[in-house]
Amino acid sequence: MPLNKINTNNPIRGIVNPTRRQLQTCHTVIGQLDFADLGRGAGTLHEVDDVRLDMQGRTAAGDANIQVQIGNGTAAAALIANSVQQTQDPANQRGAARASRDVLNQSLSSQTIWNLTGSLPMLDAEEMNESSIPTSQALQTNIYEPATRQYVFNKTGNIMITWAGPDGKEMPPSAEKLFNEAAEFYTKMLKKITNTINPVTGKPYSIYNYNAIMEIIDQSDSFVSVNQQDITYKTTLFGTNYSQNLVKTLLGFDLKADDLAFAQGMIVSMGDAGLKIGGSANSEDSKIANIVFVCEYLCGVPLVSAIVVSCDVKLNSQTFKTAPCLKEIAMSTTLKMNKETYMFLV
Q: Strand, helix or coil at 6?
C-alpha cells in the first residue's frame, strides 16, 4: 500500500502568517525532521530562531500530530498515520521521512491540515533470503528512487531554476514569489553596479568587478554566508568543453551540455574582464567575479542560494592570456578560484 498525501482542506486553528524571513525558517526547521522524530513523545522536536517543530501528541489511533509553531500560533500542521511510523526498512524509512516533510511544507503553503496515510512494504524473512532474491534485485526494492533533476537557466546563466520530477509543474505561489524576488534583486544589482562610477578608472564598474558585487552583498541583509571553498581547476579541455565543464564544476550540479548553452559566453566575458583588470595597476581591482542565483524547488520546499565565484587575475594571468575557452587544441591549464555560497533570505 503506497503512501497517500491528503489535503483535508480543514483550516489550521490559530493560524499565524509567517514573515518572509520566518517562512524560510519554517522550511529549514521542517527539513530537520527525520524518521526517528515520528516516534518521539510530545514536545519540541527542532527549533530554529523563533520557529519550532513540535510533536503535539497522538490520536487514539497513534497518528502523530506534528505542527510548525511560531509563538502561540501554528503555521503548518500534519497528521502522520501510525501505519507510516511502522516502516522498518531503512531505505523506506527515509522515504517516509521525506513524505512527512512534504506534507508539512504543503500545509505551510495551503494553510490547511494535511494527512499522510498508507504504508510502505516490509520485507519478510523469505523475501530477504539471498536464495530467493538476488542481491541486485534486493537493492531495487526501495520505491523512493531519487527523482531526476530538471534545470532551466536564463540567457546569461545567472539565474538557475531546478526541481525534481514533476514538482516544477506544480510550484506554489510562494515558490514563484521567492524566485521572482531573487531575479528582481539580481537585475537591481546589475543596475546599481553599472550606474556606479569606479573612482580609479572614472568609468562605470564592470558587472564582473568583485569589489562591486561584494559591496552590494555586504550592504544587504538578504545574504547569509554558509560556505566558502578554494577550487583549483586543472584540465586539458579547450573551447566549449572547457567552458561547460568549468561552469559545471563551479555550480556543483550534474548538468548536461544542453543545459549549458550560456557557458561559453559567460566564461569568455569573464576572461575579457580579467584581461582588462590585469592591465590595470590598481591592486584593489585584481579580482573578477560572477554571481549565480540558484532557485531550487525540491519536495515542496523553495530555496534560493547565491554562488559567488571569484578569481585573482594576477595569480591566474597566464591562464587568462592563454584563453583555453577559445582554443582549438588541447593544452594543460590551471585556474585557481574561490567559491562563496550564501542563502538568499527575503
A: strand
Cα–Cα dist 295/272, whole Å: 28
169, burial (CB in 10 Å: exposed 0-12, middle 13-18, buried 19+): exposed
Residue-wise DSSP of 289-331: EEEEEEEEEETTEEEEEEEEEEEETTTTHHHHHH-GGG-SS--
**pLDDT tens digits for 325-341?**
878 788 889 999 999 99
- Phi-psi map region of 159: left, alpha, beta (phi>0 left; psi -120 to 50 alpha): beta
Give CA 73 to chain center in angstroms.
28
| Prediction pTM value | 0.59
User: Over 189-228, what HEC string results?
Assistant: HHHHHHCCECCCCCCECCCCEHHHHHHHHHHCCCEEEEEE
Extents of the domains making up the chain: 3-120+127-138, 149-344
Residues facing 295 on adjacent strands: 161, 304
Give me the amino acid identity at 197: I
